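can u pls check wat happens w/ 2-phosphoglycolic acid
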Amino acid sequence: MPKPALMGNWKMNSDLSSAVGFVEEFFKHISGIEGKIRELFDVVIFPQFPLIKPIVDSVEAGARWSDLLRVGAQDIQPEDRGAFTGAVNGICLKSVGVSSVIIGHSERRWFFGDSDSLVNAKLSTTINMNFEPVLCIGEPGEIRDKGEQDSFVLAQLETAFDSVKLDSISAISLAYEPVWSIGTGRNATEAEIAPMIELIRGFATKAGFPGGGANLRILYGGSVNPQNASELYSIDGVDGFLVGGASLDALSFSAILDAMAGEGE
Ligand code: PGA
């Protein structure tokens, strides 16, 4: 079973100096509990593409910390190379030290038109290239209002994993992010999250994930912050978070980690 994880999706925020400053601040904040963090969690941040390499370099420069903070990409182009202006392929992501890739975030689906079939292709490429996929799923508010969230999320999972080779998955994260909770300050409740976790685990077993889903972690995302992290993390089956707004500031990001580790209460 992969360790629980805290992942920070920076979206289209930060720049070079604030990104490098984040790394310094983050390490300062977790100083003293770094052994516990290393043992208990994977921590990954997903900056804009040009910030990936400088962050990897600044993490590696602090040798004793180098395994404490991994860097991921917010997107990937499924093709190997070629005439895809503006896109970034997996070969390039590998070469700058990316470990994980977010796929199917609702903002990609909405603003960039990432279709189910594109999400499927991106997932395949990510798995084939041995990145850890962080696949986002979750229903818009109007779907939940109609009580159709289960069939909506199940359909997202089924199309995303259609014909994907599952035996090569070494670690995968599925992030349940109800669209209505993203950036709204209104996190989902246990009554909303727990049945979704059951549904996702059930899908993984039925779809034939290796070891019945032993390599799967299920994250919750949507308005997670230092104040609600401890309660959300106590929900059975929540293996960590994908955090947007509260991941931009090293202090609030590490405060979420403190809450997960049961520190600083
Ligand atoms: P939020 O974003 O934490 O700002 O709600 C979560 C996400 O979009 O991954």
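The mean pLDDT is 95.
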